[in-house]
UniProtKB/TrEMBL annotation:
<feature type="active site" description="Proton donor">
    <location>
        <position position="72"/>
    </location>
</feature>
<keyword id="KW-0457">Lysine biosynthesis</keyword>
<protein>
    <recommendedName>
        <fullName>Diaminopimelate epimerase</fullName>
        <ecNumber>5.1.1.7</ecNumber>
    </recommendedName>
</protein>
<comment type="function">
    <text>Catalyzes the stereoinversion of LL-2,6-diaminopimelate (L,L-DAP) to meso-diaminopimelate (meso-DAP), a precursor of L-lysine and an essential component of the bacterial peptidoglycan.</text>
</comment>
<feature type="binding site">
    <location>
        <position position="63"/>
    </location>
    <ligand>
        <name>substrate</name>
    </ligand>
</feature>
<feature type="binding site">
    <location>
        <begin position="73"/>
        <end position="74"/>
    </location>
    <ligand>
        <name>substrate</name>
    </ligand>
</feature>
<feature type="site" description="Could be important to modulate the pK values of the two catalytic cysteine residues">
    <location>
        <position position="212"/>
    </location>
</feature>
<dbReference type="GO" id="GO:0008837">
    <property type="term" value="F:diaminopimelate epimerase activity"/>
</dbReference>
<feature type="active site">
    <location>
        <position position="72"/>
    </location>
</feature>
<dbReference type="InterPro" id="IPR001653">
    <property type="entry name" value="DAP_epimerase_DapF"/>
</dbReference>
<comment type="similarity">
    <text>Belongs to the diaminopimelate epimerase family.</text>
</comment>
<comment type="pathway">
    <text>Amino-acid biosynthesis; L-lysine biosynthesis via DAP pathway; DL-2,6-diaminopimelate from LL-2,6-diaminopimelate: step 1/1.</text>
</comment>
<comment type="subunit">
    <text>Homodimer.</text>
</comment>
<keyword id="KW-0028">Amino-acid biosynthesis</keyword>
<feature type="binding site">
    <location>
        <begin position="222"/>
        <end position="223"/>
    </location>
    <ligand>
        <name>substrate</name>
    </ligand>
</feature>
<feature type="binding site">
    <location>
        <position position="194"/>
    </location>
    <ligand>
        <name>substrate</name>
    </ligand>
</feature>
<keyword id="KW-0963">Cytoplasm</keyword>
Length: 276
């Protein structure tokens, strides 16, 4: 039996293990099994908490299909709550090592529990020469792509992980599933990409639906919402603070000296032992 804790951040859900409890397993296989919503506990991703030589703590992230992702915005908020409330970290501001670099996090308590987490996601990267080796980046800002005889404008940046953004007037899940899969696996993205459909509500509000590489549709994607915030500021008139509506809640973003700050909730769903 493996002790675990399950969290969700705006509906994006994760299983968190301590590395000492799972070091004997193939983590890619463990992620596929534990994230399975019928034969496992069920989640969008798996997070491993481990010691770091360069930060206060390290977060490894695996998608539900077992693939490794460089970062996870909703996941790191849940991870911050996990390490703080389990007294692995005993301060409310700390650094987390990820494959996308070191992320600065701050937890805010309400009734002695972490209620809100703010994460500095760093500066978005717009060109492939800058990004970590674990991803790729095609340099698209508002470029035209022909998909199924449709001319679509896409933009692609790296913020925590690789994200592609399309602006849409309305949400159409069936159409988005087709487009999402197509772009995720397009040859210009040799390591695949997450695909975000962004609807502008007004200057300070957008709504985002994300097709996540390695998962599919999720109820929210923190780094995807951040990517939409960045591209929206690059292409359209938008303030440096924005609320992003996702399927089951909202995330808040602010640009400060080029860094993208994300604030949002993190909730504990359950703790238990996984019969693996
Ligand atoms: N849900 C995550 C993103 C996961 C990205 C992952 N799907 C990948 O890049 O492979 C978030 O809240 O930022």
């Amino acid at each position: 039996m493996i002790p675990f804790q399950k969290f969700q951040g705006t509906g994006n859900d994760f299983i968190i293990f301590n590395s000492s409890d799972v070091e004997q397993y193939n983590l890619n296989v463990l992620a596929q099994n534990v994230c399975n919503r019928h034969f496992g506990i069920g989640a969008d991703g798996m997070i491993i908490s481990k010691q770091s030589d360069i930060a206060d703590i390290k977060m490894d992230f695996f998608n539900a299909d077992g693939s490794i992702a460089t970062m996870c915005g909703n996941g790191i908020r849940c991870f911050a709550k996990f390490v703080y409330e389990n007294e692995i970290i005993k301060k409310n501001k700390f650094n987390v090592e990820t494959l996308a670099g070191i992320m600065k996090v701050e937890v805010f308590e309400k009734n002695n529990l972490v209620d809100l987490v703010r994460v500095n996601l760093g500066k978005p990267l717009l060109s492939s020469k800058e990004i970590p080796k674990a991803s790729n980046l095609a340099e698209f800002i508002n470029e035209e792509m022909i998909i199924e005889d449709e001319r679509l404008k896409i933009s692609s940046i790296f913020i925590g992980t690789i994200h592609t953004v399309l602006f849409v007037k309305e949400f159409d899940y069936n159409y988005f599933e087709k487009i999402g899969k197509y772009i995720e696996n397009h040859k210009i993205f040799p390591y695949k990409t997450n695909v975000n459909f962004c609807k502008r509500i007004d200057k300070n509000n957008i709504e985002v639906l994300t097709w996540e590489k390695g998962v599919g549709f999720t109820l929210a994607c923190g780094t995807g919402a951040a990517a939409c915030f960045v591209i929206n500021r690059l292409i359209n008139d938008s303030d440096n603070k924005i609320q992003v509506k996702v399927n089951s809640g909202s995330l808040y973003f602010e640009e400060v000296d080029g860094d993208i700050l994300m604030s949002g909730p993190a909730k504990l769903i359950c703790k238990g032992n996984y019969n693996y």
